[in-house]
User: What shape does this take?
Amino acid sequence: MTSTDIELVKLSKNYGSTPIVRAIDLTVPQGEFVSILGPSGCGKTTTLNMIAGFTAPTSGQIRVRGVDQNGVPPEKRRVGLVFQNYALFPHMTVKQNVGFGLRMQGKNQADIDAQVKKALHSVHLDGFEDRYPKELSGGQQQRTALARAIAPRPSLLLLDEPLSNLDLKLREAMRIELKDVQRELGITFVYVTHDQEEAMAMSDRIVVMQESVIAQVGTPSELYSTPRSTFVADFIGKSNIFAVTPTRAEAGIHHIEISGTGLELLAASPEPDQTEIAYCSIRPEAARWIEGRSRPDRPLNILPVEINKIVNLGAYLEVWCRHQSDTVIKSLISAARGAHLKPGVNIELTIEPAAIKLLSK
Amino acid sequence: MNQIVSGFFWVSLVCVMAFITLPLIVVIAASLSPSAQVTLVPWEWTIRWYGDLVASRWLDPFMLSAQIAVLVSVISGVLGLLAAYVVAFEKCPGHAAIMSFLLSPLAVPQIVKGVAIVLFLSSAGLYRWVGTPGLIAAHIILTLPFAVRMIATAMFNFDKNLDRAGQSLGATKAQRIRHLLLPIIKPGVFSGMTFAFIISFNNIPLSVFLVRPGETTLPITVINYLEYSLDPVLAAVNVASLLFVLAVIFVFEKVGGFSAQIHGGSK
Ligand SMILES: Nc1ncnc2c1ncn2[C@@H]1O[C@H](COP(=O)(O)OP(=O)(O)OP(=O)(O)O)[C@@H](O)[C@H]1O
Ligand SMILES: [Mg+2]
Assistant: This one.
């Protein structure tokens, strides 16, 4: 788990004069599941294609196990690939598809058969050997594509939105399977997705990309609890994001005013690294509804609000609460507790100062 | 209302089918005519005219036509494949223009081409090429655009991700062409070859300029014969050559599996 598998050093790609990927630095240790997460068009596929060798970087370096990959053709990189549209060979059976990489390496038939069997077993496709791709469901095609990529035992697997053509239920099941396969085989996964839930569920680390640059790298919980920008706060999970002006700071507590409302909040989170405070982010579950409790004598934000709207999310309600300053804060309340809440009802929201994240932009 | 509309479509279909098959039925009936004059009597027929077909007068031109068509088909397939690859994958300069240029031969009447070829051969001092070599070359000029277009279309439809998948699995370019590209575009290649075969086998307008006396192709022999007589033997020749072409299409289809492609199916 310690040795470095891939290193991206100042990796950049321009198409014409348009920068598509700008000076990306990233180190991925052997066996890690790292996701590249970002909105459509931010350069995820381009980055992946550079690692695979299909696209030459404009500048910067890609090292795989310490070896510079510049000029190494894709077929020599031994990097597995799983495509969004699976790209199964339509004229070959499942067995032939999965055995293709081994056959190209010149392995003998007995070895190929044994490894194909193993690969199919690890994706739960035993018994499908002789089907053609068009005789498989979307999920089975997806598994075949995965088996085909892992059968030659690459140390690195690149996956470009492999689950996005599947329906929600199957997608959720496949997340767990993918993660299991990855852990069992100890292969490094670089997983591209624009679905933050998917990235959160599977990854050891997430690289959040925003318009050709890395916005933040961290474990799922780091990104969730300490986003460094409004972009990350908004992209990872849900968030109440407000433009704020700091008024004063004492004893580690920042007094901030939500711009244009006069509502003052106390925030105890660290200051943003860059420049001054410009925004704050409050997770909906941090805006808690606490009934009949005496006021503690430590700093605490307590806001009397009126319920504006209730969105039922199943186990939870997303309750839109309006403060008299006209600030609307979304709060997450368990459906059981909030069963009797209705628009127009007045409640009190409590927000810990530590739960208010200060952001620069 | 819906029934009327749908009925209208059905009637149209029947008319189209009748229109296409009627000449065929007439020719078949004529070939079975009981007397040497073509007469159509439904309850009297004979197959004796087909016996005449083994005479060298018909058999020799048939063999020549078949040989030329096979050669034209194979050469068109090979050259078409190589040319299409460059157009579709190497993205040679002006590949889009080349694709549309390949349509233009359809705009030039074959008669004009025939004259041009004869003029070229005689002015280049290659008049001795008139005859079989000239026929093969001329037919290839005619069939190559079809072959290249059909094969290039198959290549354009080839999912580039398959090639990338092969590449990431360690396949070299030669391996990818052999194991991925060729098997997948095979139907396109075979449909191009089938077209080439049929165009060559049935060709009159070009061949008429290039055949040598005593060495004529089947369609030219038929035309020459027609000048003197219209009899059941001629009908029998036509039916037989039609059956031959159908058999060839059937065999090519079995080997190449292109019917789905021609019919617009996906796989
Ligand atoms: N060959 C190319 N020539 C010019 N521009 C390109 C090329 N390939 C990609 N781009 C541009 O680069 C940007 C990033 O593309 P990329 O495919 O990496 O996005 P992505 O993050 O994978 O998006 P998605 O989630 O939609 O797949 C896009 O704006 C795209 O238009
Ligand atoms: Mg993409």
About this structure: Residues A 15, 20, 38, 40-46, 194 surround adenosine-5'-triphosphate (ligand 1) (CB under 6 Å). The domain at 4-230 of chain A is CATH 3.40.50.300 (Rossmann fold). Residues 123 and 143 of chain A are 6 Å apart (CA to CA).
